[in-house]
Amino acid sequence: MSGGHGPPECRVALVTGAARGIGAATARAFGAAGVKVVLAARSERDLRAVADDIADRGGQALAVPADVTDPVSVRRLVEQTLGAFGRLDCAVNNASHAGHPPTPLADVPVEDLDAAVAVGVRGTFLSMKYEIAAMLECGGGAIVNMSSTAGLSPVAGLAGYVSAKFALTGLTRTAALDYAGRGIRVNALAPGPVLTERLVSAGERARDRVAGTVPAGRLATPEEIAAAAVWLCGPQAAFVTGTTLTIDGGLLAGIPPFTERTPT
Predict the structure, then answer these.
(1) pLDDT digits over 41-93, tens only?
(2) Residue 154 burial by CB count (10 A; 0-12/13-18/19+): exposed, middle or buried?
(3) For residues 203 and 149, what is the distance between their CA atoms, to the nearest angstrom?
(4) Residue 161 bears catalytic tag
(5) Burial state string for 175-185 with b = 16 or more CB within 10 A and e = fewer than 16
(6) Domain boundaries defined on the chain
(7) Which of 1, 23, 63, 76 could cysteine-pair with 17, CB 3.0–4.6 Å?
(8) What is the DSSP pairing of strand 36-41 with strand 61-65?
(9) Which residues neighbour 175 within 8 Å (Cβ) at sequence distance 6 or greater?
(10) What is the C-alpha to C-alpha distance for residues 2 and 130, in angstroms, rounded to an integer?
């Protein structure tokens, strides 16, 4: 005997942290797939540049400056999404705090930990709180929360970032359990090292050093992470919920061969 909900079509998507990097790539990927997309972040200028790029390629995009740590701002973001497009089918919660530089835990300023948790945990909770309410009115949907391999295997010196990403796993699984029977799927992505603006600005030597830690011998592109997010929101992933998909070039698979790797 079968039951439950069929996979809803993703017609309108909301992406937070969409001004650059993985978030911008994800917004562009939704636009290229014919999905109407709402972009949210604090930087209005950067958001509008991404939205204009999507529109220039034939897509439909709306830029909405928002602060995911503020419940009023997040509620208005979802309200503007519904006002513009009449529904919300999928969301990628990508907003994240850059975090403190590598620092032993006892030396981490309390405000740095608070900032990481405010954006990564509280911000994701608030985003899902209002996204889920809107999706229930539309008969279901899909949510992808952006985690990290650091949320599965801790990195020394990154107490704030690691704490936020570990908590994100718990939020994702809890929401998946709460709404699996009501047509809403909730998953997370855990990217390994990604070639975002931060690594680009760090220089070639730093990029090669990071790539050398990856068994695949290279960094991921934002577009590769975006493609996974769009897939998780689509009907092909209709039976996937409550999981964290790792995209890391084998980083967490185990100990690589004891040979020197050359980045490709």
Answers:
(1) 998 999 999 999 999 999 999 999 999 999 999 999 999 999 999 999 999 99
(2) middle
(3) 22
(4) yes
(5) bbeebeeebbb
(6) 12-247
(7) 23
(8) parallel
(9) 128, 132, 143, 184, 186
(10) 30
Q: Identify whether the C-beta of residue 221 lies closer than 8 Å to the C-beta of residue 247.
A: no
Which amino acid belongs to residue 109?
Answer: P
Distance CA 144, CA 93 (A): 6
Cα 218 to Cα 158: distance, rounded to the nearest angstrom = 22
Catalytic one of 30, 125, 130, 161: 161
Q: What is the mean pLDDT of each run of 10 residues along the chain (264 residues)?
A: 58 97 97 97 94 97 98 98 98 89 95 96 98 96 97 95 96 98 98 86 83 92 98 97 97 80 59
Q: How far apart are CA 222 and CA 227, in angstroms?
A: 9
Predicted pLDDT of residue 1:
38
**Three-state SS string across 31-94, please?**
HHCCCEEEEEECCHHHHHHHHHHHHHCCCCEEEEECCCCCHHHHHHHHHHHHHHHCCCCEEEEC
Q: For residue 21, give every residue at least 6 positions away whose Cβ sits within 8 Å of its Cβ, in sequence order, or none.
A: 194, 196, 197, 198, 222
Q: Does domain 12-247 have CATH number 3.40.50.720?
A: yes
- Terminal alpha carbon distance of the chain: 50
pTM higher than 0.85 for the full model?
A: yes
